[in-house]
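Field reference: sequence -> structure
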Amino acid sequence: MDDPDNRSPIGYMYAPDVALGPDGRYYLYYFYTSRTAEHKIKVAVCDTPAGHYTYYGEIKTEKEKQFIPFDPAIFVDEDERVWLYYGSAFQMGGSIFKALGGAVIELDRDMLTPISAPKLTVPNIFHQKGTTFKGHAFFEASSMRKIKGKYYFIYSSMLSNEFCYAISERPDGPFTYGGIIVSNGDVGLNGNKLAVYPTGNNHGSVECINGKWYVFYHRHTQGSAFSRQGCAEPIEIEADSRIRQVAITSCGLNGVALSADGEYPAGICCYLTDTKKWKKVKPACVDEEYEMGSPVSFVSNLKSDSVVGYKYFELNKSKQLTLYVRLSLAEVSMMKSLATNQCRAEGRIEIYSSVDREPIAKKNLVLYAGDWETVLVDLPVIGNTALYIKFVGNGAIDLKSIKFEDK
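Structure field:
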């Protein structure tokens, strides 16, 4: 990138967004900062959406007074008016910069020059009182979509894990809170207050593809807020313009239950919980390693009573389920002072179609330090179902993949 600020010390570019400008070129907006530079929103331009982009200029916004220049989102309306959305409520040192919240400004047709003062889109936690946004105030991740003549402002809320929306008759508001589209831990779904998957910040948007709407978001992996897995779920735009919160699943863009045939990576799980008594050790998480030079995802460190789940599979006939497991590498590290044959996990695997029912299958296992091994379990006919895998015993295990075969 030929951005003049992108020199030593190397800076950081975050959260880009691209739109087709009125002149037929593609404009990429990104947040830029470094150890020496101020927070800025920059623009690059290209004749094609995939690049190569060349530096175009800087959006001259106010400098962190009422609105923080962060997570830019660009929207070109049908009348070719251009709108830029941005903002954040950074948490640093236990405090939050007391900006107002999210902002919108209008840009000239050159896609660079502001022609209006910034306006508030959604207030942050300091300014939510007396508004429809209380409890779901603005944090970051602005995005704009126009659906059936209404303007949907999409954002990550103060709760971080949830992706919310607000509606207006105009691109610059005023906006009214609409609801949660998705939480990367299913928090809020049907009144649920406990996360079913490790949560963290959320970012993405909604998009219509071949006449169907989807929400794109991310889940967190490797026990880190900066390691993320891109995900998508189908959504419905109701007749009253509402979007009902959708559950996170393993199906993605398929939109239907996965076929119970063949092998699936364990990392597509949408349910991953640890028992509270294990808080002092590394939590279970989707992790990654390399095999023969290629990345392989797996679920790491499933301890006793940890549960990993998948929604949904079409299990229309009895199947043999093969689990590819090993003694967890996290467990081996904790036991490194022991001889190899003393490092082991022992217990049983339990398979459930629902976390609040009795198991549909069980299998004992003993694992020592070494390569992946197989555990075979017979599954009955269930139909369209979730599958939850629970380890009960001593030690911890990793799960690489699950494989369905006819019996």
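Note: The chain has one helix and 29 strands.
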